[in-house]
Give the backbone structure.
Amino acid sequence: MDYSEEFFGNDNDYFLDDNEIKEKIENCKKAIADGQIYSFMETIEEVIQICVESGYVSDGLYLVNALLEVTPYNAELWQLKGIFLNDSFEFEEAYRCFNTSLSLNPNDVETLINKSHAEDNLDLDDDAISTLEKAISIDPSNEEAYFNLAVLFERAEQFPKAIELLTAAANIDKEYSEVFYELGYCYESIEDYNKSLAAYDRYLEIEPYSATGWYNRGIILIKLQNFNSAINSFELAIAIKDEFSSAHFNKGIAQANTGKLKDALSSFRRAAEIDKYDEAIFFNIGQIYEELEDIPNALKNYSMAIKLNDEYCDAYLSRGFCYDSVGKFQLALKDFNKVISLAKDSAEAWYAKADLEYSLGQLNESIASYKRALEIEPNNYDVWSKLAETYLELGNWLEGMEAFNHCIELNPADAASYYGKAKVNFILSRTQEAIDCLKHAFSLDPTIKTEFAREYPEIKSSKLFKKLLEEN
């Protein structure tokens, strides 16, 4: 049987649809079955390339195996077989094929690059790096080799080396969009946000319809606290891909940071419509409602976040503060205790619990909780200050004095702690120490004189302290 060119078709392969590709593959298979493989070898090779580019893996593997039976020393065919096997997740077989190809053509850079993919998939990281370095030594102008090597270093979080290699690739091919995308990520990872922004801007010049490019640019602008520009970037990402939940979500974050709370609420709600199972969305909706002083809706959304993730510490903590604000103290205490059970090193939860216990009149329990918070954050001024005041209410004067001393160590200009120490010294009849502390407090904050006069009218009327007040 004779085969005409029309049997295979002579259309421009770049415009083939799936049916045309399948027809070409079937025609090749028929030629092979009919023993015409030698006559149509070049055409079969072209169809194999189409299979590579179009993702017809099993068909491509069938055709390349057929050609290898008659031309077993063809290095390119062994490389193509390796590519199909890589795409089939048969990495060890792919690795062997690339080695066979290289034994026939040792300096083929394309094969070396593909071999590095197999090595990467086999977790042979050092081998993959060596293979790509060899490719670069053979062809120093191969931007793909630089790019692939950069990705390996990027994944190992060796960002300066990755940036060096990506920059080399960009210098070779200034239109290699993926290079600028990865540069944006690498610069973000080392917190060089201005260079990250420049990289994403260059990427978007090449790929202006990339939703993820505009999204990543928006994230960088948030980190640069350029919230209005971030909103614009997220809007462009959404215009390209409306169902982009993260773009709606982060648009809401940017809007919240500009005080546009109702706009932020709309953005978060749209994100929730797209992704009903993302607890962070409902948590942020709760935050907006709390800012708007709509506590019932804040509680509702914090509870939804907790329903989706029953270990969501921030949601329990925020819900606890809301319960506390509306007088539901036992529910608040339950949420704070839940946070502590999930994250025992949460100083904020222990502090919140301590404040609530204080409000409930459970002063001894409150002191224990404040001290637990200080074990986690020993330099937390606010906790030391509350602990000192609580000690004073319990009449634990010396412990209170020690807590005030810690406050002063952390904040030497803390007039309130000097005044607290003065009150303790009065109680302990340490008159001179009390006077010294008062002098210091008055010099740091003269308004404390009024507080002192109100709290100690009998002392204020004495000549000694009147003289002290006049001097200060």
